[in-house]
Design brief:
α3 packs antiparallel against α4 and α7 packs across α8. The strands form two sheets. A seven-stranded parallel β-sheet has the order 5-4-1-6-7-8-9, sandwiched between helices. The two termini are 20 Å apart. The chain folds into two domains: 155 residues, Rossmann fold (3-Layer(aba) Sandwich), CATH 3.40.50; 84 residues. About 3% of the residues have low confidence. It has 245 residues and is an alpha/beta fold.
């Protein structure tokens, strides 16, 4: 069984959102904010990720600087290098924040680890992600953990081949259609999508059938009941919830 880490087992996006709120307040004080600032920042951040071909630690701090510089140019104000540096430092601070467990994370891992071999997958900077996973206290539940530059079908296939996993009878659990559900489907796994908040970059159309869970607590029932119904559900539907199993 393959688990995503960020925003599936621990909160990540809310740490970035808190940094954004501090950034927006500072931009307010400089009279550099308008109603489009959230989208402007998001566009810069996504462009940085795409340019790097995956998640790099520099992407978000740089996006804060770029947004500040964009609004200075837009409004004809001088770019203050010290202020730009302050905003970039604000972006780096998100990586120092501890990872808070999502409710139900500990309980589901305790239960599933008694019956399944668990693997943990995440993407991003090796040092940052390794530190966050270690501090979460969740690693003892996993047989192996992996950090990828980008989570795609090849990443999932690597784990499947390395450990001789029967993909057709194995599960993948995560909150992102782009990085969790679709690569799992492409790799032949059974996919569960946790309806936790995900960044805009992670949104895309599903490539096949998957199960939808409102939170981690539903996963056990989906796994137990879905194993009996997966083949029937896999044709003619893109997804189904626990109620429809």
């Amino acid at each position: 069984m393959l688990f995503d880490f960020d925003d599936t087992l621990v909160y990540t996006n809310q740490i970035f959102d808190q940094a954004k709120d501090r950034f927006y307040s500072a931009m307010d004080s400089l009279e550099l904010r308008d109603e489009k600032i959230d989208q402007i920042l998001n566009d810069f951040d996504i462009a940085n990720v795409r340019r790097h071909g995956g998640f790099h630690k520099e992407c978000f701090p740089l996006a804060l600087r770029q947004t500040y510089e964009y609004y200075c140019k837009l409004q004809g104000k001088d770019i203050i290098e010290e202020k730009a540096n302050d905003f970039e430092r604000l972006g780096w601070q998100v990586y120092d924040e501890p990872a808070e467990l999502i409710p139900g994370a500990l309980e589901i891992l305790q239960s599933l680890s008694q019956h399944y071999t668990l693997f943990l997958l995440t993407q991003g900077d090796d040092f940052i992600q390794k530190d966050r996973m270690e501090k979460s206290g969740l690693l003892p539940f996993f047989y192996r953990s992996y950090i990828f530059h980008a989570k795609n079908a090849q990443a999932y296939q690597k784990i499947i081949m390395e450990h001789n996993i029967d993909a057709a009878s194995s599960w993948s659990i995560g909150n992102s259609l782009r990085s969790d559900v679709n690569p799992s489907i492409q790799a032949g796994l059974r996919a569960i999508h946790i309806n936790n908040y995900s960044w805009d970059y992670e949104h895309e159309e599903a490539l096949g059938f998957y199960y939808q869970a409102s939170d981690l607590s539903q996963c056990l029932n989906i796994i137990n009941r879905g194993s009996e119904n997966y083949d029937a559900n896999a044709s003619g539907k893109s997804s189904c919830s626990l109620d429809s199993i």
